[in-house]
Amino acid sequence: MSTTTAVSAPSRVKLPRWAAPAGAAVLFAAAYLVFRGTGTLPHDQEAPQFLAITELREWIDDHRNDNPLFLYFLNYIRLFVGGLYDLFQTTLYALGWPGITGVMGALAWLAGGWRIALLAVAGVSAFGFLGLWESSVDTLALVAAAVLMSLAIGIPIGVWAGLSDQGRRAITPVLDVMQIMPTFAYLAPLALFFHIGAPAGAIATMIYAIPPAIRITALAVSEVSPTAVEASASLGATRRQTLFKVYLPLARSTMALAINQTIMMALSMVVIANLISAPGLGGDIIRGLSRAQVGIMLPAGVAIVIMAVVLDRMMTAVSRRGPHAKLGRADFIAAGVLGVGGLALIPVLPRMWPESWTLNVVAEVNDAVLWAETTWYPVTTFIKDLTTEGLLNPLERLLTSAPWWLVALAVLAVAWRVSGVRRALTALGCLLAIALLGTWEHAMQTMTTVAVAVLLTLLIGLLLGVAAARSPRYSAVQRPLLDAAQTMPAFVYLLPALALFETTRFTAIFASIIYAVPPVVRLVEDGIKAVPATVVEAATSAGSTPGQLLWKVQLPMARQAILLAANQGIVMTLAMVVVGGLVGAGALGYDVVLGFSQRTDFGLGFVAGIATVLLGVMLDRITQGADRRLSPRKRKLT
Fold it and tell me: Per-residue pLDDT tens for 506-564?
């Protein structure tokens, strides 16, 4: 009797999802231990590429008035921008403080009523009380010139992009790069081609402020109701008539938001533009930073914040007004009284703010900062040392002692897994370009600071965002604070950081955190609130605890919003860390500052600015692609 034995095929062993990343991490760790200290590309201050760019600047300065490119093109742009700035400056100084106060009050009343007018009058008066009248007027003139140019160029491009899908696709990559670029990166090439001074500062501010003007205008035009457009066309309107009678009126409120955001971006940039000798409040802030005296910086920082709040509230009031809203006769009469009253006082009162009406608080502020440093020294030192010794130094040693090719492979592997092959190759290309530029070591130091700042920003942002999403009362308290924080220019965040931690690397990290946390909190909160109520109710009825509901339902479903928050956190943190070069952050930020302060190091600063942009593009592409990929659960279902 024969018997048959059924032999089943051996089943494949299914590895857990974490096995591949863990194995790759072990391989990279082993490679690091074997090759540590080799291929590290140390920084060379006298690298040929730095010296070549410095020599190029010297040649340009020598031939600025005989080279055809400068003689017939760039110099005319500089003269036009300089003339525009001089026009605004001359007009504002001619109005004097009575005229400016009256005119601003009148415009504010027309924008949003008596409350906004009262805020504008008080805000303009505050510039004088702080002893910064001339600097504030110079800043207003520079902002006015830059915003006017930004809107004159940005709104037509935004309208074109909003009406044309092809135009939107063409302009989007350019805008992406422009918004990734840290503020410092604009300064070096503009100083090279437009020299230094108010025109170069206005052009730098215009370039930095133009992306929101284009993006929001394009969004406003694209969201106009197709029904209204079809009705216009059916009545025989031409494309030009449809644009001016349908698109622009219906998009007016959103376009007012574009103007508002352009003004806010311009205010952020005019301070930094002082590094290329742009006039205004930036000079007081930079001088205070260089001397590490918060007493000099604080009044200028407060003046910038007041200016931002006044202009923000005026434009926000305009954007909230309906397309058919009309001002009453009383509003025009009140605004006219304010404006005419201010102009009538010009020959009566002195045009410059009387010095006897100013408040000098430099000594008091410096004494308060010294008291805070002395009193809180144990706490601030503990936090600073813990972060430095526990996170910054180990990560910096790892990145600067690892071979460049190993770091490049690690970035390629992470980017490939997180964002796909195309973005991984872009990230790799940026990293290789940084190596070729000769800024590898300083780029790794900057990446260390950014990584630590982003980690802490996301941790704080997640905690506050989750708390706001789960508690409407807490959200109502937190929301105005976030609004105020997002109105402030970036430089203002250096004030508390410098007061608490003096000039160290951690100062830049602390400033980066408080600068980047507000948008991260908002994105996390909105992402969790966007989870459908039916899903939450189903999980709750199934017996989920609040903790299970958060970890198993809300956070996974808010994944895209959280990844977008990480992307925004990285971009904003990188921008602030570079600014932190003024307060001891070192690395690429310090190189950029050094390039502006020392003509012999201009090439180093120029190349460091390019390396910062490449670093930003690399980090942006990795995280930007993450929210477009399917989650592991969705990949499994599909």
Answer: 888 888 888 888 888 888 888 888 888 888 888 888 888 888 888 888 888 888 888 87
Please compute, for residue 473, the number of CA atoms within 13 A of its CA located in the half-sphere on the CB side: 0
pTM to 2 decimals?
A: 0.79
Residue 600: pLDDT band with limits 50, 70, 90: confident
Q: How far apart are CA 213 and CA 67, in angstroms?
A: 34
- Please give the C-alpha separations between residue 525 and each of 291, 469, 520, in angstroms, as whole numbers: 40, 5, 9
**Enclosing H/E stretch for 160:** helix 133-163
First to last CA, the chain: 51
Cα–Cα distance for residue pair 544/540, rounded to 1 Å = 5
Contact 148, 205 (CB under 8 A): no
As a whole number of angstroms, the distance between CA 580 and CA 302 comes to 19
> What Rg do the C-alpha atoms of the chain give, in angstroms?
28
Specify whether the CB–CB gap between 318 and 312 falls below 8 A.
no
Give yes or no for a contact between 516 and 569, defined as CB atoms under 8 angstroms apart: yes
Asked whether the beta carbons of 520 and 527 are under 8 A apart, the reply is no
- Residue located via tokens 């144990």: 378
Residue (of 185, 621, 610, 177) closest to 434 by Cα position: 610
Q: What does the pLDDT read at residue 436?
A: 93
What would the two tokens of residue 589 be? 């930020």
Pair of tokens at residue 310: 């006044």
**What is the rounded distance in angstroms from the CA atom of residue 187 to the CA atom of residue 613?**
12
Compute CA 278 distance to the chain's CA centroid, rounded to the nearest angstrom: 20
Q: In this predicted model, what pLDDT tens digit does every residue of 406-444 receive, in sequence order?
A: 999 999 998 888 888 888 999 999 999 999 999 999 999
Cα 47 versus chain centre, distance: 31
**In terms of DSSP H, where are the helices of 273-346?**
282-291, 294-320, 329-344
* Alpha carbon distance 604, 53 (integer Å): 8
Are 201 and 270 within 8 A, CB to CB? yes
Q: Can you state the percent helix, strand and coil of the chain, rounding each to 5?
A: 80, 0, 20
Q: Is 497 exposed, middle or buried (0-12, 13-18, 19+ CB in 10 A)?
A: buried
Measured on CA atoms in the order 276, 279, 281, 285, is the torsion positive or negative? positive
